[in-house]
C-alpha cells in the first residue's frame, strides 16, 4: 500500500517544517522518501492549500478501564442523545463525556488524533484496561500504571531499599504491560483508606511513615535509572485546593534534576482568593515550569458543559461529592490504589468554574516553551476530548478568548490576568502542543512527526478563520497509512497497537513477591500478572 | 497422561477463587483441591466427551448448525441474545458484536440478579472497594439480604468473616458482624448480631438508619419488625468503626422496591463516610456475570437490557430485559449463551422460548436446550477453555484451561455465526 | 384449608450441587422440590414435616415436600429452580426483575386422597 499526500503545507515541528509546501510519501504504514515508492502505482491525494500535520498525540486521557467503565455504567444520562448507529463495518456506540470504546476510537479519528495514552490503571485491574484497549480502534495506545500509593514501593522506601523498589517497579511495568509510572496524590490515596488525606509533601503516610516527597523522589529516580521512555507522570497533592499552587511549585523543586511530567496542572495551580473562591496562581506555577527544563506539563483545560470527573484521588472525589451533591463512586483497591467518580457540569456563571477555566488558559499562555506544555482536558475530568478544537481556537484567537472571558461570573473575572495576555498560538505551535511535544515527552520516536521512518499517522485540515471549525473537521485522517476519517467522519475501523515497556530487573525478586502476594493480595501472583491468560500482545518500546 | 494445574480459577460464583489445584488424567478430572462443594461439581461432574451440534434434536455437522442459526437470525425481526454469565469476557464481546450486527436486544443474567443494583448505582453512585480491602481492613461487616453461607461458600474464609489480613491478624476476633435478613440463615448463625426484618420492610429500616446517622429520633419503637434500640446500636458501631463494609444480595434486589432498597443502602453507606470509612459490595452471583456488565458497558455504555434494534444502543430495563421481552412475546428468535432461563425464569416467560426458534450455546444439557432449535455444545470456560472473568469486586481474573477436549468455545462459535449472518 | 403466605426463593447449597449433576438428576429434583415453613404455620395448616404442601398463585400451582424450618410465621422458602418458577409472575415493575421474593402464595396441605385423585 503506497500513498502520496502531495502539495500540502506541512507543519512538522520536529523536522522544522512550519508550513512549507511539500509531499509526504507513505509505504507499508511508514513515511518514506519519494524514491522508496513507485510513484505511478501509489494512490495520491492532492493536498494543495491544505494543512498537513502528524496525527494528534494525547498524552493524558481516561478512555478505558475500570474507572472509565464505572463512569459509563453510572451515567446513562450521558449517553442518551450521543448515540452512533452501526454503519458498514463500523460499530454502534454511545456516550458524550464517557463514550463506549469503539465510539471513542472513531471520535478521536474525527479530530485527527491517532495516539492516546490511558492516564491511569491500577495493576490489579489492568487486565481490564487491556481488554478495553483491544476494543478501541484507530488508535495506538499505552497505559500508565499507578504506583504512588503502592504498598510494596512504600515499604521499600521505609526500609531504605531503593534497589528493591527499582526491581519491583521494573517487574510491575512488565507484568502489567504498562508504559509509564503514574503517581496520583502520593500517600493521600492510602490515607483515604483511613478517611484521611495528605496536605503537605512531608506529611506521613499512615502505617508506612514515608512521605509524598519520598515517594515522588524515589519513583522519579527509578524512572530515570530504568531509562523509561516517559518520565514519572504525576498528579500531585492538594488537587483542587487553594494550597495546590504552592505544593505544585514545591513538587517541581523537590524533583529538580529529574525528568518529570506533571499532568492537568490547571487543577493544581490555585491560591486562596476572597470569599472561598480560589484564584489563579498560573503566574507562579508557570514561572516554576519555565525555570525547570526537565519538566513537561499538560493542562487539563476546563470546558464549559458536562464532564465526568474520575481519578484515583479518592479523597478529592469524596470532597467533590459533598460539594456538588452529585452521585459518587469510590473504589479502594487493595495494596495499591483507589479512585472516585463524580459527574459535574462546568458553568461560566459559577465563579469557581470560571477561575478554573482561566487558570488553564493562563498557563497555556505563560509557559514559554510549547515543547513543554501539552493540550489536554484530562478527558473526561475537565471536559471531553471532543472539545480540543475549541481549546485550539481559544489559544489561537484572542478575540474569541476575550469574548468567552466576558461571560464569566464577575468574581472570576475580578483581577484576572487573562484579558491582558495577548499571545496567540501559531499553527506550528499547535502542532507542537498536540503532536510533536507529547510524542517527544512520551519517547515515541515514530510518533508526532512526518520524517522518514515515522508512522504514517497524518491529519490533513482545511485552514479557515474559525480554528475550532478547522480542527473539528479534518479533510483526511490516516492511521498507519490507512484512511480512517474523511471530512470529519470516520470511514474505517482499523486495529491499533498498544505500547508497553519491559525494563530489566533481578528475577530473584519474584521469589519474594510470590510470598508477599499470599498476604498482600486476594489474587494469586500467577494470575495477577497481565502477561498470563488471554490478551493481544503489546509492542515493546525500548528503555535506555 | 496426568497433569496437575495450580492457581486454577473456579468459575462458579462471583468469588472466582483462583487458588485451586486440579489434577487430571487426560480429559478426566480426578481431584480438585480447595474448591467448595458448589465449585467441586463444576470440575468433577464435567462431562468431557465430544458432542456434536443438534438441530431439532438431531446431530448435524457444525457448518449445518451454523447455517441454521444464521438463517434463524437473518429471518428474525426482533432477536434476543441472553445469558453470558458463565461465559468469558472474550465471548461476551463477540455476543455484543453479534447483537450490533443483527440489531438484536442483548441482556445478561444481571437482569435477574443484580440488575436493580445497577439501577441503584446509576441513581446514587456506589462507594465500594476490592475484597482485599475487606480482608485487610474491615472491622465491621454488615451482610444485608444475602447468605454467603449458601451462595458464596468461601467468601467468609477468604475475604470476610474469618479472613486474616494486615489490620485484622486475628480474623473473626477482629470483627463485629451483623446479618440483616427476613429469616435466620446459615450466615446469620455465624454473626454476632442478627436483625430480622419483616419481608418488604428493608427500605423503611434503611431509611431509619439514615435518620439515626443524621442524629434524628424516630417517633416509633420498632421499624419493619426491628426494635429501634437495635438499630441505634448498629448505627453507633457503623459511625465508630475503622473500616466498615456492607454486603448486599438478592434479599434487596428481588424484594418489593428492588433498586430503591439498594439505592437506600448505597446512600446510607455514602453518608457514613462522614464518620468512618465505609464501603458496600454487591454479592454478584454467577462466575462472570460481573464481566457481562463490564463488557456491555464498555461496548454500549449500558450494563444490561440493551437494544440495537434502531442501530444504536438503547437501554430500557423493563422493556429490553429478557423476562419482559419473553413475557410480552416481543422476541421472535433467541440466542441463549451459557445460562438456563428455562430453569431460572418465571414459567410463563420461559414458555415463550419454546414458541420461538432458539439457539443455545452451552457446555452441558439444560432445560432451555432440551427444546431448542439449534444446540451448540461448547467448552466450559475455566475447565476446557481459557478466558477472562470479573470477580464480584470487578477484579479481572484469568480462567484456565485445565483439560484439553478440543471443544469449541462460545467465542469461536459466535465468530462463525457472525460470519454467517454477515 | 389454605392460607395466604409470602413466598421467597433463593439459592441453597444442595440446589447448587444438584445443578452440576443435571436438572433432570434426582439430586436437583430433591433439592428444589421442597418448601421450608414455619412450624406453627404447618401445624395450623395440618402440613406434616416431610409431608406434601400445595402452593398456588395466579401463575400456577406446584406440590412440594414441606420441611419445618426456622422461618418467621407467614413466610415460606423454596429453593430456586424450575418448580418454584411455576409460581412466579412475569411482572418486573420496570426493572427486568420478577418477584422472586415477596410474592403472595396460597398454601395448603395435600391429603392422601387428593394426592391419589
What descriptive keywords fit this protein?
heterotrimer, A: 544 residues, alpha/beta, TIM Barrel, ten-stranded parallel beta sheet, nine-stranded mixed beta sheet, 26 strands, 33% helix, globular, C: 117 residues, Barwin-like endoglucanases, six-stranded mixed barrel, 4 helices, 6 strands
* Termini gap of chain A: 33 Å
Return the CATH architecture of chain A. Alpha-Beta Barrel
Give the C-level CATH assignment of chain A: Alpha Beta
CATH class membership of chain C: Mainly Beta
Sheet of most strands of chain C: 6 strands, mixed, barrel
Please, could you describe this protein's structure?
The complex is a heterotrimer of chains A (544), B (422) and C (117). In chain A, strands 6, 9, 10, 11, 12, 13, 16, 20, 25 and 26 form a ten-stranded parallel β-sheet that branches. Chain A is built from 19 helices and 26 strands. Helices cover 33% and strands 22% of the residues of chain A. The two termini of chain A are 33 Å apart. Chain B folds into two domains: 51-112 and 287-421, Rossmann fold, CATH 3.40.50.740; 115-282, Dimethylsulfoxide Reductase, domain 2 (3-Layer(aba) Sandwich), CATH 3.40.228. In chain B, 37% of the residues lie in helices and 22% in strands. In chain B, helix 2 (62-75) crosses helix 18, helix 3 crosses helix 13 and helix 3 (89-102) runs parallel beside helix 18. Chain C has a single domain, classed as Barwin-like endoglucanases (Beta Barrel). Chain C is 24% helix and 34% strand. The two termini of chain C are 18 Å apart. Classes of the chains: A alpha/beta (544), B alpha/beta (422), C alpha/beta (117). Chains in contact: A-B, B-C. The interface between B and C is large, with 58 and 43 residues.
Give a short synopsis of this structure.
Chain B is an alpha/beta fold. In chain B, 37% of the residues lie in helices and 22% in strands. Chain B folds into two domains: 51-112 and 287-421, Rossmann fold (3-Layer(aba) Sandwich), CATH 3.40.50; 115-282, Dimethylsulfoxide Reductase, domain 2, CATH 3.40.228.10.
Amino acid at each position: 500500500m503506497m500513498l502520496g499526500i502531495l502539495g500540502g503545507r506541512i507543519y512538522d515541528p520536529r523536522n522544522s517544517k512550519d508550513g512549507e509546501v511539500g509531499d509526504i510519501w507513505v509505504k507499508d504504514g511508514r513515511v518514506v522518501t519519494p524514491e522508496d515508492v513507485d510513484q505511478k502505482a501509489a494512490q495520491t491525494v492532492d493536498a494543495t492549500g491544505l494543512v498537513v500535520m502528524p496525527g494528534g498525540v494525547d498524552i493524558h486521557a481516561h478512555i478505558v478501564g475500570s474507572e472509565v467503565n464505572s463512569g459509563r455504567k453510572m451515567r446513562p444520562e450521558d449517553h442518551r442523545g450521543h448515540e452512533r448507529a452501526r454503519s458498514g463495518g463500523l460499530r454502534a456506540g454511545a456516550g458524550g463525556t464517557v463514550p463506549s470504546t469503539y465510539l471513542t476510537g472513531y471520535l478521536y479519528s474525527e479530530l485527527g488524533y491517532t495516539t492516546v495514552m490511558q492516564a491511569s490503571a491500577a495493576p490489579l485491574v489492568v487486565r481490564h484496561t487491556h481488554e478495553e484497549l483491544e476494543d478501541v480502534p484507530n488508535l495506538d495506545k499505552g497505559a500508565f500504571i499507578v504506583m504512588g500509593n503502592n504498598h510494596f514501593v512504600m515499604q521499600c522506601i521505609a526500609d531504605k531499599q531503593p534497589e528493591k523498589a527499582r526491581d519491583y517497579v521494573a517487574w510491575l511495568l512488565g507484568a502489567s504491560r504498562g508504559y509509564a509510572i503514574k503517581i496520583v496524590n502520593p500517600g493521600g490515596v492510602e490515607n483515604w483508606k483511613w478517611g484521611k488525606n495528605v496536605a503537605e509533601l512531608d506529611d506521613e503516610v499512615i502505617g508506612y511513615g514515608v512521605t509524598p516527597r519520598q515517594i515522588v523522589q524515589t519513583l522519579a529516580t527509578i524512572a530515570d535509572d530504568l531509562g523509561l521512555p516517559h518520565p514519572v507522570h504525576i498528579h500531585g497533592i492538594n488537587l483542587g485546593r487553594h494550597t495546590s499552587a504552592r505544593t505544585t511549585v514545591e513538587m517541581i523543586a523537590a524533583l529538580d534534576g529529574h525528568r518529570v511530567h506533571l499532568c492537568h496542572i490547571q487543577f493544581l495551580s490555585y491560591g486562596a482568593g476572597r470569599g472561598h473562591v480560589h484564584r489563579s496562581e498560573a503566574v507562579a506555577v508557570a514561572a516554576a515550569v519555565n525555570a525547570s527544563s526537565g519538566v513537561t506539563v499538560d493542562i487539563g483545560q476546563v470546558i464549559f458543559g458536562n464532564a465526568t470527573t474520575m481519578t484515583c484521588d479518592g479523597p478529592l472525589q469524596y470532597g467533590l461529592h459533598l460539594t456538588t451533591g452529585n452521585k459518587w463512586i469510590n473504589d479502594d483497591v487493595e495494596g495499591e490504589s483507589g479512585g472516585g467518580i463524580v459527574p459535574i457540569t462546568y458553568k461560566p456563571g459559577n465563579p469557581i468554574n470560571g477561575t478554573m477555566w482561566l487558570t488553564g488558559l493562563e498557563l497555556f499562555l505563560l509557559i514559554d516553551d510549547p515543547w513543554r506544555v501539552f493540550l489536554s482536558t484530562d478527558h473526561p475530568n475537565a471536559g471531553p476530548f471532543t472539545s480540543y478544537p475549541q481549546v485550539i481556537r481559544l489559544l489561537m484567537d484572542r478575540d474569541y478568548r476575550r469574548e468567552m472571558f466576558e461571560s464569566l461570573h464577575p468574581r472570576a473575572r475580578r483581577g484576572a490576568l487573562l484579558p491582558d495576555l495577548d499571545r496567540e498560538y501559531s499553527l506550528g505551535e499547535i502542532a507542537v502542543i498536540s503532536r510533536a511535544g507529547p510524542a517527544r515527552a512520551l519517547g515515541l520516536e515514530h510518533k508526532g512527526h512526518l520524517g522518514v521512518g515515522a508512522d504514517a499517522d497524518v491529519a490533513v485540515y482545511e485552514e479557515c478563520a474559525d480554528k475550532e471549525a478547522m480542527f473539528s473537521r479534518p479533510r483526511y485522517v490516516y492511521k498507519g497509512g490507512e484512511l480512517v476519517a474523511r471530512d470529519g467522519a470516520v470511514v474505517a475501523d482499523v486495529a491499533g497497537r498498544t505500547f508497553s515497556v519491559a525494563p530489566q530487573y533481578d528475577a530473584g525478586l519474584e521469589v519474594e513477591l510470590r510470598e508477599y502476594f499470599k498476604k498482600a493480595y486476594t489474587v494469586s501472583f500467577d494470575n495477577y500478572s497481565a502477561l498470563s491468560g488471554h490478551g493481544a500482545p503489546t509492542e515493546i518500546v525500548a528503555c535506555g | 497422561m496426568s497433569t496437575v494445574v495450580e492457581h486454577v480459577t473456579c468459575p462458579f460464583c462471583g468469588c472466582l477463587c483462583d487458588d485451586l489445584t486440579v489434577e487430571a488424567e487426560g480429559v478426566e478430572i480426578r481431584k480438585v483441591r480447595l474448591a467448595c462443594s458448589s465449585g467441586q461439581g463444576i470440575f468433577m461432574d464435567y462431562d468431557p466427551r465430544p458432542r456434536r451440534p443438534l438441530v431439532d434434536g438431531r446431530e448435524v455437522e457444525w457448518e449445518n448448525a451454523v447455517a441454521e442459526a444464521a438463517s434463524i437470525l437473518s429471518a428474525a425481526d426482533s432477536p434476543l441474545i441472553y445469558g453470558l454469565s458463565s461465559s468469558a469476557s472474550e465471548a461476551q464481546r463477540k455476543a455484543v458484536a453479534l447483537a450490533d450486527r443483527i440489531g438484536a436486544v442483548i441482556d445478561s443474567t444481571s437482569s435477574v440478579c443484580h440488575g436493580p443494583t445497577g439501577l441503584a448505582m446509576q441513581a446514587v453512585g456506589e462507594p465500594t472497594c476490592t475484597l482485599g480491602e475487606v480482608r485487610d481492613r474491615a472491622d465491621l461487616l454488615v451482610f444485608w439480604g444475602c447468605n454467603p453461607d449458601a451462595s458464596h461458600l468461601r467468601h467468609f474464609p477468604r475475604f470476610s468473616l474469618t479472613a486474616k489480613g494486615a489490620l485484622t491478624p486475628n480474623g473473626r476476633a477482629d470483627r463485629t458482624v451483623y446479618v440483616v435478613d427476613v429469616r435466620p440463615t446459615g450466615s446469620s448463625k455465624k454473626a454476632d448480631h442478627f436483625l430480622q426484618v419483616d419481608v418488604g420492610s428493608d427500605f423503611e429500616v434503611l431509611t431509619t438508619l439514615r435518620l439515626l446517622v443524621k442524629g434524628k429520633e424516630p417517633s416509633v419503637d420498632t421499624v419493619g419488625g426491628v426494635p429501634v434500640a437495635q438499630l441505634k446500636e448498629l448505627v453507633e458501631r457503623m459511625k465508630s468503626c475503622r473500616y466498615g463494609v456492607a454486603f448486599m444480595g438478592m434479599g434487596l434486589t428481588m424484594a418489593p422496591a428492588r433498586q430503591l432498597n439498594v439505592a437506600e443502602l448505597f446512600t446510607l453507606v455514602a453518608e457514613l463516610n462522614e464518620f468512618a470509612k465505609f464501603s458496600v459490595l454487591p454479592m454478584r452471583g454467577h462466575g462472570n456475570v460481573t464481566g457481562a456488565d463490564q463488557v456491555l458497558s464498555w461496548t454500549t455504555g449500558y450494563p444490561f437490557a440493551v437494544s440495537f434494534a434502531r442501530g444504536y444502543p438503547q437501554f430500557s430495563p423493563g422493556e429490553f430485559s429478557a423476562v419482559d421481552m419473553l413475557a410480552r412475546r416481543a422476541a421472535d428468535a433467541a440466542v441463549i449463551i451459557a445460562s438456563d432461563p428455562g430453569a431460572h425464569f418465571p414459567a410463563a416467560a420461559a414458555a415463550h422460548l419454546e414458541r420461538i426458534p432458539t439457539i443455545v450455546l452451552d457446555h452441558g444439557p439444560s432445560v432451555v436446550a432440551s427444546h431448542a432449535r439449534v444446540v451448540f455444545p461448547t467448552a466450559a470456560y475455566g475447565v476446557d477453555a481459557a478466558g477472562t472473568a470479573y470477580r464480584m469486586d470487578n477484579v479481572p481474573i484469568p480462567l484456565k484451561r485445565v483439560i484439553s477436549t478440543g471443544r469449541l468455545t462460545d467465542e469461536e462459535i459466535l465468530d462463525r455465526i457472525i460470519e454467517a449472518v454477515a | 384449608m389454605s392460607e395466604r403466605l409470602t413466598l421467597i426463593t433463593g439459592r441453597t447449597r444442595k440446589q447448587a450441587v444438584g445443578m452440576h449433576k443435571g436438572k433432570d438428576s434426582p439430586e436437583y429434583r430433591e433439592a428444589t422440590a421442597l418448601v421450608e415453613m414455619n412450624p406453627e404455620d404447618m401445624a395450623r395448616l395440618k402440613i406434616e414435616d416431610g409431608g406434601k404442601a400445595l402452593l398456588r398463585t395466579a401463575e400456577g400451582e406446584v406440590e412440594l415436600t414441606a420441611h419445618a424450618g426456622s422461618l418467621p410465621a407467614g413466610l415460606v422458602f423454596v429453593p430456586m429452580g424450575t418448580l418454584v418458577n411455576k409460581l412466579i409472575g412475569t411482572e418486573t415493575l420496570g426493572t427486568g426483575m420478577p418477584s422472586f421474593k415477596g410474592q403472595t402464595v396460597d398454601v395448603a396441605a395435600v391429603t392422601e386422597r387428593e394426592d391419589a385423585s
